[in-house]
Amino acid sequence: MVAASAAPPVVPGYSLAFPRDHGSHPDFRTEWWYSTGWLRTARGARVGFQITFFRSRQAIADANPSAFAPRQILIAHAAISDPLRGRLQKDQRIARAGFDLAQAREGDAAVWIDQWALTRASGAWHIAAPAEEFTLMLTLSPTQPPMLNGESGYSRKGPAPAAASYYYSLPHLSVAGDIVRDGRREAVTGEAWLDHEWSSEYLEPEAAGWDWIGLNLDDGAALMAFRIRDRHGGVRWAGGTLRAADGTTRHFAPGDISFDPQRRWRSPRTAIEYPVEWSVRAGDIAFALTPLMDDQESDTRATTGAIYWEGAVRAGKGGREIGRGYLELTGYGEALLLR
Amino acid sequence: MPRLRLWWQLWCSQWRAGPVRMAMPVVALALGVALASAVQLVNRSALAEFGQAARALSGDADLVVQGSADGFDERFFAAIARVPGVAVASPVLELRATLASRREPLHVVALDPFRAMQVQPALLGEIAGRLRGLLAPDGIFLSGQAASALGVETGAHLEVLVGSARRRLEMLGRLSGAAYPRALGIMDIAAAQWQFDRLGVITRIDVRVAREANPVAVRAAIARMLPPGVTIAAPEVDDARLASATRAYRVNLAMLALVAVLTGSFLVLATQTLSLLRRRSTLALLRALGMTRGALRRTLTAEGVVVGMIGAALGFAGGIALARWMLHVVAGDLGAGQLVSLSGSLAVRPADWAIFVLLGALVAGIAAWLPAREAAARPVAQALKAGDAGTAFAHARSPWIGGALIGLGVLLAVLPPLHGLPLFGYAAVATLLTGGVWLVPAAVGSLLARWPRPRRPVPALALAQLRGNSARAAIGFAAIIVSFSLMVAMAIMVHSFRESFIDWLERTLPADLQLRVGASDGTATLESAAQEALAQVAGVARAQFRRSRPLALPGGAASVQLIAVPIESGGVPDLTIVRSAPATAGVRAWISEAMVDLYRWQPGEHVTLPLGRGRGLAVTVAGVFRDYGRSTGSVIIPRSNYVAATGDTTANEAIFWLERGAHAATVVEAMRARLGLGAALQIRTTSEIRERSLRSFDRAFAITYALEAIAVFIGLLGVGVAAASTALARRGEFGMLRHVGMLRRQIVTMLAGEGLLTGVIGAGCALVLGGALSIVLVYVVNRQSFLWSIDLAVPWAQLGLLTAVLVAAAAAAALTGGRAAVGGGVIRAVREDW
Fold first, then answer.
1. Which of A117, B262, B405, B809 sits between 20 and 30 A of B214, alpha carbons compared?
2. Does the bond joining A142 to the residue before it have cis omega, within 30 degrees of 0?
C-alpha cells in the first residue's frame, strides 16, 4: 500500500527530545496524546477522567491540493467516571485538520478540534473539553521527568521489529482545575498520567487488541504494563516499564508480564464481556486491579470505529490500596483496527 | 315535520321525472371541484416532496449562508466557524454534475461529513459507519433515486464531464430512500473541489447556533462579514423558492377550475330557477298548507346546498383520481417542466374533503338562494294560478347592478398583483362575467325588440315567444354566455400566447444549428480549444459561442439566467426588444420583462451583477426584451464583458450558420466526433427546435383545451336542460297552438327557431363578453402570473367555427327538448292549463 510505504518506520536508536517530541509527528500514520487521572472534588468525591486526542494520517489524500483534503484526521474522546452515576459520561469529536479549526502542531504539544484542546505552555499541560454532559478544564503539572518506555522510547508491540511505536509517559502529574456538570462548576484536584505515542505500524495483522495499565503508585513509583492479544485469545506480546520514586527504571520483557482475569462484566448495550478485575504481575511485583465501577465501556464507532473498555482502577495488595490509574481493554468485541 | 316530508317526496319526484336535468348541476360542480382539488393535491404533493428534500438537505441548520453557483472563498467558512455562538459550521459545495451518459445533470452535495454529521444526521445516517470511505478522492454516494435513474450499483463508475474533460467517480454506496426522496450524489468536499476544478470554492455554509446563543445576534454577526452576493437566511427560504417556481402555472389551472365551478354554480341557479317555475303551483300549495315564507326559502336553498355538497364530494373523489393520474402520467409539475415528482405519492388530508364540500355547498347554496327568495316572496294566490313564470328574475332586469359590476370589474383589472399573484385579475374576470350575465335580460330584450319581424309565421312566432318570455329565455342565454364567453376568452389568450411564442422563436433562432452542452448549470463546458475545433468543422460558415448560467440575485426567489452573447460595441442582440434606454457608456445589459417585475430594474438603470468573486460587474440596463423561455428572469450581457469580469472563457451554448449546400446531419456528426461529450452534447437544427418547442407548448396547453371543451359541453347541456324545461312548462301553450291549427312539425320548427335565435344572440353576447375577458386575461392575468407580455391575437377562424357549432347545438338542444314536450295528447295538454 502506498499509504504504509510513505509513512516512516519506527526504528530503534531514535533519540527523543523535548519539547520537540511533545508535538505532532505528521508523517507517521498514527499518534495519540492520552491523559487519564483520578480527581477529588471539593466535596471529597472521587471521579476518574480520560481525554485522548488521536491523529490519523490519510496518505490517500496526499495528492489532493484542496485545503479540505483530509490528510490528517483528528479524533478526541473524553469521559468522566463517576461511581454515583454508574456509567461513563462521555463525548467525542472528529474533524479533518485544516483552517486552524482543527490541528496537531509540530514543535510542542498543541492539538485541538474546535473548542477541545490539549496544549502545553510554561511546562504545564492544559486540557479544555466542553462536552455535551460536562466540561473539563484542567491543568496538569509535571512532578517527574518523562518516562521513556521500551528501549529509550522505542516500544515494541509484537515479534516483528517494525510493529513498534515511539512512546513515553508522564506519570504523577499534579492536577488542578474545574469540571462542570449539570451547569454546576466544581473545583477538582488530583493526580494524572499522560501517554504520548506515535507509530506507522502499531498492531500486526494477527493482533486483536490489548490490555493496558498506567498506574501512579502511592510510594511515588510509576508502572506501565501492556499485553497484545492475538485473535485466538493468546498473548502475542507484552511489555512494561516500572520507575521507582528514586528514578531507577526497569523495562519488562514479554515473559515478565502476566494479566489474569478475576471477574468479568457483560455490557448490557453491546453484550461484549470484559474482564474488569485482574491479578497482574510485572517482574517481581504482583497486585490486584479493581475498577472504580464496572460500566466504563466506550462506544466510539462513530469516530474510531471501536468499542472498548477504559476506566479508572485501583491497585491493591493484601487488601491495601497501593495506587490508582487507568485500565484499557480493547478488541474484546471485534478485533481492533488502527487506521 | 309532515310538510318537510311532503317537500322531500316532491323533490324526489323531480329527480324521478328528470334525472339528467337534476344531475346536470351536480356533474358541473363535481367537475369544477375535481379540477380545483386535483391541481391543489398534485401541487401540494410535489411541493411536499420538494420540501422534504430541502429539509433533508438543510437538516438541523438554523441558518444557511448561501452564495451563487460561482460560490465564494472557502476561508469564509473558517471565519464563520469562529463567530461566537456558532456551534457548528458545515461547508458545502453544491453543484450539478454533467454526466457523460445522461442529459439531466446530477445534483451533487459535497460536504465535510464530520461537520455535516452534526447538521444533517438523517441524511448521512445511512453512511455514518462508512464516513471514512467517503474520504476517497473519487468516491460518491448516491441516493436510491439517483442510483436507479442512472442504473448503477455500488462499485460502479460514473463518468462526469468537467469542462470538456471526463472524470471517473466510484459509487461507494447508496443512501436509503427515506434519507432523501430525490436524485442526489454526496461527495467529500475535498474530493469534489478537486474533481470538479473548484479548488478554494464553497457555495454554502450550514450553521447551527449554540443553544445558549442568541440566533438573531449570531445571524447579524455573520451577515456583517459576508462578501457581496452571499446571503444568510433561515432554511425555509428554499420552500418559498419552489412554490414560486410553479405558481404561475398553478394559477393558470386554478383559473380553469374557477371556470368550471362558476359554470356549475350557474347551472344550479338555472336548473333551480326552472324547477321553481315548474313547481310554482306545488310550492304555492305548500304555502297554502301553512309553510311559512322563511321555511320555504330555507327549504329551497337547502336543495341547492345538498346538490352542492353531493357535487363537491363527488368532485373531490374525482379530484383524487385525477391527481393520481396526473402524478403518474404528467408528473408532478403540471406540465410546467420545473417540478418532477419521483415518488408520486399523494397526500390527502381529511380536512381537504371538508373544505371542498363546504365550498361546494356555499356556492350552490347562494345559487339556489337567489331564485328561492323570489319564489317564496310570490303571493300564494297568484302563484297558484298558471302563467306566472314571467316574473321570475324580475330583479335581474335592473341593468344598474350589472353596470356597476362591470365597472367594478374594470377597476379590479387595473389593480396590481397581490403577493405576486393576479388575484385581482381573477376577481375582475369573475366580476365582469357576473355583470355581463346580469345585463343579459336587458341586452337580450333590447336586441329582440330591434330584431326585424320575419314574414313567415313560424319564425315570427318563435321571435314573439322569445320577446314575450325574455326572462325565461334569459336563463338559456345565460347558460350559453357563461360557458361560451369564458371559452372565447381562453381561446383568445392561448392563441395570442401561441402567436407571440412563434414570433419569439423566430427571433431567438437566427442560425441553422443550436448546440448546448448539458444543462446550463452543469459542470460541462466548451473550453477555447473545443470552441475553435467546432468553428472549424467543415460546412460551418459562422459560429457564435455563448456562456449561459444561472445567477442568484439578492432579493430574488429563484435564480435568473445570465447569458453572455458576442455583441459588437454599439450593437444590439437579436431579441424582441419591448423597451430601450438611450445609449449610454459602460457595460450594457438587456433584461427580460420578468426582471422589471421581480427586481424593479428599469431601462437606463445602473445595477451590479454578482459575477466573479469580487465586487461584481456594474452594468447599465440598455433594454427590456421578451423571453418566453424563462419566467424567473434572464439577463444578456456582451460576452467580452463577461470574460473580463470573470476570466471564464468557456462556453456552453453555440449557434452555427451553415455554408450553402452543407448537410446539417453531416456537420452534426463531425461535431460529435470532435468532442467526446457523449449524451451531454445536444445539437439540434433550428426547425427541429421550433417543432419541439411548439409541441411542448401545445402539450402544456392540451389540458387547457380539454377543460375548455368540457366547460362548453356543460354549457350546451345547460341550454338543452333549459330548453327541455321551458318546453315542458309550455305544454299548455303548445296545446293551444295545435288547437288553432299549427302542425306538430311547425311547433318543433318554432322551437328550433327559438333555439337558433337564442344561440345566435347568446353567442354574439358571449363573443363580446369573452373578448372583454380575454383582454383581462392577456394583459392582466397572464402578465402578472408569467411576468411576460403577449400581443393580443384573435383566432377568428376558430371562433367562427365554435360559434357555428354552438348555434347549431343550441338549436338541436331546443329541438330535442321540444320534441318530447309536443309528444303528448293535445287534449291533455290543454286540460293541464286550467
1. A117
2. no
Residues B177 and B264 in one domain: no
Three-state DSSP state, B582: coil
Has residue B817 got a pLDDT over 60?
yes
User: Would residue B179 count as lying in a domain?
Assistant: yes
Same domain, B215 and B281: no
Q: Is residue B15 part of a domain?
A: yes
pLDDT digits (tens, 9 = 90+) for A5-23: 478 989 999 999 999 999 9
Mean pLDDT, residues B186-213 taken together: 91
Strand-pair category, B588-592 with B617-625: parallel
Instruction: Give the C-alpha separation, B584 to B569, whole Å.
Output: 11
- From B206, B234, B262, the end of a domain falls on B234
Map grid coordinates 457595460 to a residue. B587
In this structure, of B82-91, B404-413, B732-741, the range with the lowest mean pLDDT score is: B732-741
Supply the ipTM of this predicted assembly.
0.89
B103 and B48 together in one domain: no
The DSSP code sequence of A95-157 is EESBTTTEEE-SSS-EEEETTEEEEEETTEEEEEEE-SSEEEEEEEE-SS--EE-TBTTEEE-
Q: Residue B532 sits in which domain range?
A: 525-676
What is the rounded average pLDDT of the residues B261-278?
71
B640 and B531 in a common domain? yes
Chain A residues with CB under 8 Å of B190 CB are: 61, 64, 66-70, 96
- Tens digits of per-residue pLDDT, B707-733? 667 666 766 666 666 666 666 667 777
Give SS3 for B484: helix
**Cross-chain residue pair B114–A96, CB shorter than 8 Å:** yes
- For residue B197, give the chain A residue with the closest CA: A66
- Residue B319's pLDDT is what? 84
pLDDT of residue A337: 61
CA quadruple B396, B282, B264, B816: dihedral sign: negative
Does B207 touch chain A if contact means CB atoms closer than 8 Å?
no
Q: Determine the average pLDDT of the residues in A86-115.
A: 94
Q: Last residue of some domain: B676, B705, B734?
A: B676
pLDDT at A2 (0 to 100): 39
Whole-number Cα distances in Å, B339 to B48, B243, B253: 11, 10, 15
Please answer yes or no on whether B117 and A114 come within 8 Å at the CB atom.
no
- Does the pLDDT of residue B348 top 60, yes or no? yes
The confidence score (pLDDT) of residue B51 equals 65
**φ, ψ for residue B186 (rounded to 5)?**
-120, 130
**Structure letter (DSSP) for residue A90:** E
Q: Are residues B207 and B81 in the same domain?
A: yes
Do residues B533 and B667 share a domain? yes
B686 contacts B511 by C-beta, under 8 angstroms: yes
Higher pLDDT, B631 or A231: A231
Buried b (16+ CB within 10 A) or exposed e, A145-162: ebbbbbeebbbbbbeeee
- Going along chain A from its start, the domains and CATH numbers come out as 17-329 (2.40.370.10)
Give B81's contacts in chain A (Cβ within 8 Å).
99, 101, 114
B388 with B350, same domain: the answer is yes
A271 touches chain B (CB under 8 A): no
Q: At what angle do helices B744-776 and B731-739 cross, to 10 degrees?
A: 140
Decide: helix, strand or coil at residue A328: strand
Distance CA B546, CA B528 (A): 12
pLDDT band at A245 (very low <50, low <70, confident <90, very high): very high
Residue B544 lies in a domain: yes
B670 and B696 co-located in one domain: no
What is the distance in angstroms between the Cα of A62 and the nearest Cα belonging to chain B?
10
Question: Per the structure, how many domains does chain B have?
Answer: 4
d(CA B79, CA B823): 91
Give the pLDDT confidence score for residue B321 in this predicted structure: 85
